[in-house]
Every structure is written in structure tokens, then in C-alpha cells.
Description:
The chain is of the alpha+beta class and 343 residues long. It has eleven helices and 14 strands. A hairpin with a 2-residue loop joins strand 3 and strand 4. Helix 3 (44-58) runs parallel beside helix 6 (98-115), helix 5 runs antiparallel to helix 6 and helix 7 packs parallel to helix 8. The chain is elongated, with a radius of gyration of 26 Å. The model is unreliable at 5-17 (pLDDT under 50).
Amino acid sequence: MAQQAYATDTDSREGDARTGRPVSRLRRLFSGWRGDPGIWRRGLVLTAFALLLALVMVLHAQIPNSLGNLGSLNETFLPWVGALLPLLMLCGLLRKSAIAMIAVLVPAIVWLNLFGGLVTDKTGTGGDLTVVTHNVNAGNPDPEGTAREVAASGADVVALEELTAQAVPVYERALAKTFRYHEVEGTVGVWSKYPLSATAPVDIKLGWTRAMRTTVATPEGPVAVYAAHLPSVRVKVNAGFTASRRDQSADALGAAIAVERVERVILLGDLNGTMNDRALKAITAQMRSTQGASGSGFGFSWPAAFPMARIDQILVKDVEPVTSWTLPRTASDHLPVAARVGL
């Protein structure tokens, strides 16, 4: 009888050792919380920081751009606030602060309200036209390889940005078998399987051409396609986040699209800004993001080595997004982005 009892006791302890370790650790972590009034006094700094994050998200539109364009900078990387929330929760747990852990729920709810719809999979099937945009990088060491990868994407229409005079012939030769038609204006170009017409540069107030429009004669009817590369933003020590030229160009591009006579419009390009950035309002107020409407996740496109923001955009007007995604990395510092749309 004693031997049987010993065996049972040993088996039980072995079972705890095998399966009970995580539970035991949690018990130790929460031990002492009950009856400890300090759980409501500790972690006040964590609590204040969590509530500050919530305010930054709720009031992001009220953060002024007058101080180094701080508002636009905040809006560009606003989704990354979500990465701080698990860390804050862990800190509150280790600090044994109930008030801090409860406070973290506030920015979590705000974040889910702002971005929760983006983390779900909204991709559909079908569609009539596949489009791709890619900033190929002026310093691309392998333009021919980049062109081959773009051609293999299955796109019907492709917009390329940051083209150089030396690289244009390389892209033309490499894409000729896949795309019968193409037009290049300045540093941007459109390649298409369908005829192009009424191609013209678009003045975005830079003094040289970094935007264009063309009409694509799809089997479902004409579609106005814009390709654009808005000026880059810069972070300067004395001026902060400078984007005045980008903002001015965005306004000019938005004005051009607003008077477009073709009903269905697709904008492809590197806008050097996210859909949250108020500086792009002249464009985003009248167009939908294919990624936001039919993508899976945030679809970050830059920098290619570790994407942190979606500044390469596919926006549509009177066109139905079906699915949207990023393509594999090329020799560029941007990822190509693609979308399938219904006409």
C-alpha cells in the first residue's frame, strides 16, 4: 500500500513538472496581488504613458504641422503605436500594477478602432484588371532583373517611377514581350497590354515631370491611369520633418484628378506618404486605397529590407477594389505593390 501511494505521489509531481510549469509561473507572477493596496498606486508613469498614447491616436489630426511637420510624421507611423501595447501590458504585469494594465486597454481599443479593419483579410476573387506600381530606384543595380520580376507579376498595367534616361531603354527591352504598349513622361512610365491614348504629363509644381496620365482602352471600357512620384520628405536637424514640396505636389495632383473627364480613374505611384497623412487629403478625399478596401494587413512597402510604411499606393475612383497585395522584393529599395480591380 505504501509503495502504491509513493508511486501515485511521484506520478502527480512529474505531471506537475511536465504540464504545470507555465501555470506555476503565472501563479508566482500574480502571487501577492490579492489584498495588496499597492496595485492601485504603483505604475502611475506607465498609466500616464498609456493614456498619452491614446490621446496621440485620438487627436492625431489636431497635432500641428507648424512644428517640424510633427502631425504628418506622427500620422505616417501611427500604426506602429500598436507594437508598444503588448510591451506596456508586460511592464504593468511585472510592476504588479492593476491600474496600468487597465489603462493599456484604452489605447488598445483606440488602435483597434483606427486600424483593426486593416489586420483582417478582405481579399476577394474575380476582377477585370491587374495593376502594379513600383518605384524601381534610380540607383537600381539590376534594372533588367527588376523588369523581369515585374513582368512576371501577371499585371495588365504597370507604372514605374524613378526612371532614369539610361535605364528607360533597358526597361523598354525587358518589358516589350509582355506589354505591347508603353509611354514614358519624365521619370515615370506606364506599360500596358491594352492600347494607350491621350497620354500627357501632369504638372505637379516641380519644374520637371514626375507625373503623367494616360487612357487605357480595356475590354470593359476606358480607364484613366495616373502614374506619379511625389517629392520625398526629409528629416532635417533645424527644420524637422520637411515636406512642403511633397504637400504642394499632392495638392496639384489632387486638382488634376478632380477634373478628370474619364469616369474610372486609377492612381499608381510612390506618394511618399500614407493614407493617414493629412498632407495627401487632396488625393485621398476623392479616392479609395485598394489595400485598405481589399487587402490583407497593412501592405507596408518601404523600406524594402524592413517595410515600415505604405508610401507606394494604388488608389481608385469609380473602380471596385477586389484584392491588393505586395510583391516580392526586387533590386529596388521599395517593394512593388499590386491590385486586382473590377471595372
